[in-house]
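Table S2 (continued). Query chain:
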Amino acid sequence: MEAHRQKLIDDVRRAIADKSTETDILQAAVELIDAFSDNFDWTGFYMLKDGVLKVGPYIGPPTPHTVIELNAGLCGAAASQRQSIVVDDVNADPRFLACSVTTRSEIVVPLLDADTVLGEIDIDSNEPGHFTEQDRVMLEAVAQVVVERLKTAR
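Corresponding output:
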C-alpha cells in the first residue's frame, strides 16, 4: 500500500485509541478521512441502529438522508450486501439517493464485525470517477480499525 494511504490508516488508529465513546471514535476518524482528499466533498458515518442506518458524525453540507432503510440507496445496498460499493457516476445508478446536486461519485464501505454490519463509511465526491481501487482497499482497512476500536469501547 502506498505510504500516504498507510499513513491514514495508522493516523486513524492512533487518533481513536484513547476515545471511549462511539461518537468520539467516529468523529476523530471522520476528520482524518475527510482531510485525506480535497475531493472528498461529504464524508461521514452511518451506523446501523434499530434496523436502519442513522447518520453519525460527518463533514460536509447537511444531508436530507439522516435515516436510510437497508434496501434504499447505495448506503442501504452496501450494508445489505456486506460489501463496499464504488460508483463512478451516481447519476447512472438508480440506487443513488441524492444528498447534493453536485455529487458525481460515491464510495460506501461497511463496518463489518465478522458478518455483522455495525455501520459504514460514506464518501461523496463532486468529481466523476474519483474513487480508486486503492481508495477502497484503504477505506476497508480504516473500517476494520474503527470496528476493532468500537468493539473494545462497547
